[in-house]
Amino acid sequence: MQTVLQINFPFKGPFGPEMSQAMKALAESIATEPGLLWKIWTENAQTQEAGGLYLFSDAESAQSYLKMHKTRLTAAGITDIKAKLFNVNAPLSKICKGPIQ
């Protein structure tokens, strides 16, 4: 079953175009993760937060990615990482124009 992973964490920047440039190589790496269907990057400069919404083909891929990503974030000095996994209700999501495959 498709699984959504939601991750949020404190982040001091960069944001906006600078973030896009600084994180391009990371985005290219994330795009190759097993089971990843898509990721929406999230950022809020006012609250100093960043993260993302991910759609994985299955829960196992999402959990594996989460474990690896938490390790990567922690190694970069990021703490207070919040993550949640959700099953996708595809019929309702499609009605509401969700990018479900």
Quaternary structure annotation: single chain
The CATH class turns out to be Alpha Beta
Helix content: 25-40%
Globally, the shape reads globular
Rg of Cα set: 14 Å
Widest beta sheet: strand line-up:
2-3-1-4
Mean pLDDT: 96
Quick rundown:
The protein has helices at 16-22, 24-30, 59-75, 90-95; strands at 3-10, 36-44, 49-56, 82-87. It contains 4 helices and 4 strands.
Give an account of the 3D structure.
- The protein is globular and about 40 Å long.
- Helix content is 37%, strand content 31%.
- The chain contains four helices and four strands, in the order E-H-H-E-E-H-E-H.
- It has a single domain, classed as 2-Layer Sandwich (Alpha-Beta Plaits), CATH 3.30.70.100.
- With 101 residues, it is of the alpha+beta class.
- A four-stranded antiparallel beta sheet has the order 2-3-1-4.
Q: How is the topology of this model organized?
A:
Layout: E1 3-10, H1 16-22, H2 24-30, E2 36-44, E3 49-56, H3 59-75, E4 82-87, H4 90-95
Keywords: Monooxygenase, Oxidoreductase
Pfam families: ydhR (PF08803)
GO molecular function, one term: monooxygenase activity
